[in-house]
Amino acid sequence: xxxxxRLSDETRKLLSNYRGGADKQLKEALAQELNAIVLxxxxxxxxxxxxxxxxxxxxxxxxxxxxxxxxxWLNRLLLLDAYPQELSRPLIL
Length: 93
Prior knowledge:
Radius of gyration: 14 Å
Structural class: mainly alpha
Distance between the termini: 33 Å
Number of strands: 0
Strand content: under 5%
Shape: elongated
Largest sheet: none
Number of helices: 5
Order of helices and strands: HHHHH
C-alpha cells in the first residue's frame, strides 16, 4: 500500500486498467516513478518492513544511516527485498 500511495493518480489509473501483456505506457510510468522513489528519502520504516526478510547487504547499509547514492542504493535494495518476484536484481560483480 505504501508504494501505491506514492504513485501518481495517472499511474494508479494505468495499473487499475492493466489487463496483462505488454504495456509500454505503464512500464515507462512505473520506471519513472520507482526511480523517483529510490532517489528520494529513505523508504525504510521498521513496521513497514517487519515481515520482509532483508538481504544482508540491505541490513548492513541500513545500519550506516546512508545518504546520497548510498541511500538510493538502500532504497533499491529494500524494494528488491520486498518485491523479489516483481523486480529483477542487478548483476553485481
